[in-house]
Amino acid sequence: MSGSEGDAKGQSVTLHVVSSLDGFIAKKDNSVGWLDGPGGVYEAGVSISEEEAAAFVKTIDCYVMGSRTYEHALELGWPYGDTPVVVVTGREWPPARESVEFYSGDLKVLVDERLKPRYRNIWLVGGAMLCQRFLELGLVDEIRLMIAPVLLGEGLRLFDGSVREERWSLKNVVGYKNGFVELLYSASGG
Length: 190
Ligand SMILES: NC(=O)c1ccc[n+]([C@@H]2O[C@H](COP(=O)([O-])OP(=O)(O)OC[C@H]3O[C@@H](n4cnc5c(N)ncnc54)[C@H](OP(=O)(O)O)[C@@H]3O)[C@@H](O)[C@H]2O)c1
Prior knowledge:
By secondary structure, the protein is α/β, with parallel strands linked by helices. It has helices spanning 50-58, 67-76, 107-115, 128-136; strands at residues 12-19, 24-26, 62-66, 85-88, 100-103, 121-124, 142-147, 156-157, 168-175, 181-187. The chain has a domain at 12-32 and 52-158: Dihydrofolate Reductase, subunit A (3-Layer(aba) Sandwich), CATH 3.40.430.10. NADP nicotinamide-adenine-dinucleotide phosphate (NAP) is lined by residues 17-18, 25-26, 30, 65-69, 72, 88-91, 104, 107, 125-130, 133, 156.
């Protein structure tokens, strides 16, 4: 895993999601077994220890997610610890964990006026709807796409055709022993 490059001030918005080989990020029934189902071992791949993964996660200053992803994270068991989380929603929500705040409104204002003054390494972690809005508005500096070694056939598409044609620069590729591949791209010119 390599860290974010960021802009001149070292700040960056990284879109991070796990996709199936055929481009889905969720099954219709929302089950997540496909994320860690058994698969062949890719001998040439790397593996990272729990300590390395924990150290990497500590470099993330803030997570941003859509309300449906938030609901699913609550169901599955909160994976974000005490790291600040901003949930984008137009709905009213009951008070949640201290680390969670809700945001409704202009997404460019969110990034430029609420997030970047406070955080450097900002991770947008889904879902598809919010990622597409961020991409349409040019608010993503990096795409970190993890490809799972599975075809799902149907589900929720990461990219549904609403984003415009745009070239990105490949920065890194990591193949893991479990058959997952991580692709890291930065916005061209970034
Ligand atoms: N494979 C992965 O890496 C991955 C990652 C994340 C999520 N997921 C899966 O993806 C699914 C959820 O994705 P999704 O695309 O359905 O939903 P989502 O993007 O998580 O959330 C959509 C919601 O976000 C709010 N929202 C989005 N844009 C907004 C804006 N401009 N202003 C205000 N609110 C806005 C709206 O909330 P309100 O309706 O509350 O107004 C909208 O209904 C879940 O199954 C989740 O498990 C997979």
